[in-house]
Amino acid sequence: MIVSSLGHLIIEGYGVSLRKKRGRLLVVSSEGKWEFAFKNLREIIITGKASISTDLLKALAFNGVDLIVTTYTGTPLVRLVPARAGGTVRNRVEQYKCLEDGRGCIIARDLIVGKGRNQASNLRYYSKARSSPSESRELYEKASMIKELVEKLKNYEPHGDLRVCREEIMAYEAQIANIYWDAMKIVYGEYGFRERLKKPDIRESAEMDIVNLSLNIGYNLLAGSLWKYVLRFGLDPFMGFLHAERPGRLSLVYDLIEPYRPILDRFIASLLRTNTLKQGLEPKKLAVILREKYYKDFLNYKLKYRGRKYRLETIMFLYVEDLVSFLIGRKSHVSTPYIAW
Amino acid sequence: MIVSSLGHLIIEGYGVSLRKKRGRLLVVSSEGKWEFAFKNLREIIITGKASISTDLLKALAFNGVDLIVTTYTGTPLVRLVPARAGGTVRNRVEQYKCLEDGRGCIIARDLIVGKGRNQASNLRYYSKARSSPSESRELYEKASMIKELVEKLKNYEPHGDLRVCREEIMAYEAQIANIYWDAMKIVYGEYGFRERLKKPDIRESAEMDIVNLSLNIGYNLLAGSLWKYVLRFGLDPFMGFLHAERPGRLSLVYDLIEPYRPILDRFIASLLRTNTLKQGLEPKKLAVILREKYYKDFLNYKLKYRGRKYRLETIMFLYVEDLVSFLIGRKSHVSTPYIAW
Question: Are A6 and A140 found together in one domain?
């Protein structure tokens, strides 16, 4: 069991029991007993095997504490939804309108600009730190190539047909990704990274593919975090701007994690460097370590956002709020977080 | 514990444990053990105190079995939502469009026409059965008054401004309701019914207000049933046509139960007549009896719908499907179920 300072409680392992006792959460496992006040909790993430009382479910709903059940790699499976959650229709209505009136194209563009900026920032960061001059130069050059593409994309004129717009923006995204992952081979190469794979075969080549496995687990964790805020602001997680709709795909969530992916990439690189993630680790153990680091460290990272320093989790909240401000016409663009090099 | 032939499992009482065992649901309580195949289950309704394993939550999500936690009067509190549920954006988008393009007005009108028709039908039904000629005549006359209003409402020309439209339709609804509840005093009067109250004081006057209490519990159960289909068809439960939006109100669900309310009214009257609901019953016990009767009998009632006889629960499904057909332009109106007199 892990509790982060931000109120994330992660339940792992077997035979854990969660119930309500005297207005508090009581967790009982073979390792001991713990009690938590609901006001100190924000989210309970269950990746292990546990049992939950219905009294607790009601108390969580009443106190606005989220509960999510995930696979061990963090893929969200089930969420507890209080009957009243998602009651603000206005944001969803505006979200839908943006899909049709050209504003969806601005959002899609801003997200990929934000992602590309952070990808370029990563390459510069590693360029500076690299001892080999040729590697350092290659990283720097590729960062510049990405920066150029980002500048071009910034000036991309949004237009009304989101389908066309999406394709054009995704073409930029793909170009940038090719350059970026090619350069990241220098950074991740010593851990066996050859190419970016969305579905590394975890059964046979776990040892050699620790990088892809870690990235995929990390992106799942990002999706879980942003999904929460998407629901909290009453947005429709299935209506995406960048990612076309496909039954069952949380398109908006996958849109919104784009600028965060490079931040996660850097986090994974630092964990690999300090040997926190070791080759030969079992995938399940890798997921446990990553999850702990994600909730304890990653979400606690301080970054500048809209002129002030905040923890990354606060930024995620402000960022979805920012999107809503755009949707309801209070802002002309969506601010994405920037990770400095 | 109650299991209906339609696959509703209702968990009441204390200390019930629900878990997965060999690919089946295992229910353990002080009264015994039961096993169910997931394919025979449609919905688990927990009104008592139980504990649920996360393995079971995952299996329910995977097998498409709904889980809902309610208060003892049936008010839905928490619902289990699989990550992939609600993935069909199209229906929601059309639902939203109907709010703005005048079609929402047609839906609102059809729902109140359907409700009024069933209210008039109830009064005729009781008029026929009444032994007192003056009561019988009064019921018959009030049924005719309602019928007239329904005919006028049928010819109501829908127009684009839903706010105005809604007010005009709700004015018909209120007029009909006044006539109807005034007449229903004849039917319900012997059980202490004086006027329709949405919030009868259950602490002090439970004995004298068994009718209002029963009606409210019954309408909650209706809301729970239709909420399920609203979510299953990917509609937004908060975006209503008839009921204006209010944070946290399941407006669409409350729209859709309108034509079903009179069917429930007749059901409650029959339960009162056969002494199934007795004055002096504790509210909690009343809720237990009603819930059992609702899932075992009410949802099993056969009614004609769109030319064929179906069980009421099947009708609820077909009816939401019918609404979707209207939303996507395959039908020109929404068919509501008619309860014959």
Answer: no
